[in-house]
Design goal:
By secondary structure, this protein is an alpha/beta fold. Helices cover 29% and strands 26% of the residues. The radius of gyration is 21 Å and the shape is globular.
């Protein structure tokens, strides 16, 4: 079924009794050309672009829970391309361009809202660093504006520019950045992939990966063995555990990243705002709730929950910028499991095992990368080699020393 204003009117007049399911619920077949492990945003996008861009429709996406039950539905919905390192700049800008045309491409309302992303600077050195990043972005053809205090005051009137410990000095604004409805991304890609013939298999956990003579032959699941010519891993925070089934040890650590949403209020914040003196970011959803997040909990974990220490830390930083938020109650909290790489940049590559492909190491950047990740991973799978956009995201860079250290934190995954 194609969604349109006419379809909406027609179904409204017939009591909404004729809507079709968004995707099929097929039984797994004995063999597929490609099996994608992970039914989150990256896995579903990969399957969609395999079918759309490369004509590979004999594909199954296997997910241990329900589609979108992982990080794609457990984030703060922010999209942006305000990176400085060339590999990241090119990749995330391509992702932002795909976001801009996504809803028309998949015929689904993902609520893409390019409301702007503002990074606040709280010292002269940080302002200079933002100026360098902004210049690097503009040289690469990416929009960036360096704002002074008066421009920030006009843009975000509720912001306390003179907070005692961390007064605001300047801000780097990317107007094309913004937010997207996170779970709608999973639903939209799932529906679009299913429409092109991809099998979406829920409640099907991978418990083993078969490798014969250095080549992958399929996956053992809780619903039986599924043979495959190619297996693509897009398991986010569980990437290390799934790759270990094939004998691979990855340069990753899994950490919890919490997010929060407040009670709904009238519109008070039109942009995404980030705190430069710590790790805090906030935006207002279309329902009126303030969505905010901060840093990882700092200890390795596979639990989709976090500690109270980070809750306190995030609230303190938020109130340093917006004292008016002190009267709000936050309604709920959730945690995503981040696959933190040693340089803070992702891995999209082949593996030493023939037919086995890897997509992981997304740290904080997984959601915003969803379209480009799926697009580049699909290319890599179909062509058997990386695209120019993900050629820097090789697995062997951690042995060769060609790391992409965007944050400059060194080889400490928990600092990225």
């Amino acid at each position: 079924m194609t969604y349109s204003a006419l379809a909406l009117l027609k179904n409204a007049l017939t009591g909404n009794r004729n809507w079709k399911p968004m995707w099929r619920e097929p039984e797994p077949r004995a063999f597929y050309d490609t099996v994608v492990v992970g039914g989150g945003g990256h896995g579903l996008a990969t399957a969609y672009y395999l079918a759309k861009e490369h004509g590979v429709t004999d594909v199954a996406v296997v997910e241990k829970g329900y589609l979108g039950s992982g990080n794609v539905g457990r984030n703060t919905t922010i999209i942006r391309s305000n990176y400085m390192m060339p590999d990241n700049t090119r990749f995330y800008e391509w992702s932002l361009k795909l976001w801009e045309g996504l809803e028309q491409d998949i015929n689904y309302n993902a609520m893409v809202s390019q409301r702007g992303v503002l990074n606040l600077a709280h010292s002269d050195a940080q302002r200079d660093a933002y100026a360098r990043r902004g210049n690097a972005m503009r040289i690469a053809g990416v929009d960036a504006e360096l704002l002074d205090r008066s421009a920030i005051r006009e843009l975000v009137p509720l912001l306390d520019l003179d907070t005692a410990r961390f007064p605001v000095k300047a801000g780097l604004l990317q107007r094309r950045g913004g937010t997207v409805r996170h779970d709608a991304v999973a639903w939209g890609y799932a529906r679009a992939a299913d429409k092109r013939g991809v099998d979406l298999i829920q409640n099907c956990e991978v418990v083993g990966i078969r490798v014969d003579n250095g080549r992958v032959t399929g996956v053992e699941t809780t619903r039986g063995f599924i043979g495959a010519r190619r297996v693509a891993l897009a398991a986010a925070g569980n990437s290390s555990r799934v790759a270990a089934m094939a004998g691979l040890r990855l340069p990753l650590e899994s950490h919890v990243l919490q997010a929060f949403v407040s009670e709904g209020i009238k519109p008070v914040l039109d942009q995404v705002v980030t705190f430069g003196a710590g790790h805090f970011y906030v935006s207002q959803s279309d329902k009126g709730g303030l969505v905010f997040g901060g840093d990882i909990d700092g200890y390795a974990s596979y639990a989709q929950r976090g500690s109270l220490g980070v809750v306190e830390h995030v609230m303190e930083e938020g109130l340093a910028l917006f004292p008016a938020f002190s009267r709000l109650r936050f309604l709920r909290q959730w945690g995503g499991v981040m696959d933190m790489s040693m340089d803070g940049s992702p891995i999209i590559d082949l593996t030493p095992i023939s037919g086995l492909f890897l997509n992981c190491g997304w740290c904080y950047g997984g959601f915003k990368a969803t379209p480009a990740s799926g697009w580049c991973f699909a290319w890599t799978i179909a062509k058997g080699e990386p695209h120019a956009l993900n050629s820097g995201f090789r697995l062997d860079r951690f042995t060769s020393g060609g790391v992409i250290d965007e944050k400059g934190a060194g080889a400490q995954a928990n600092l990225h």
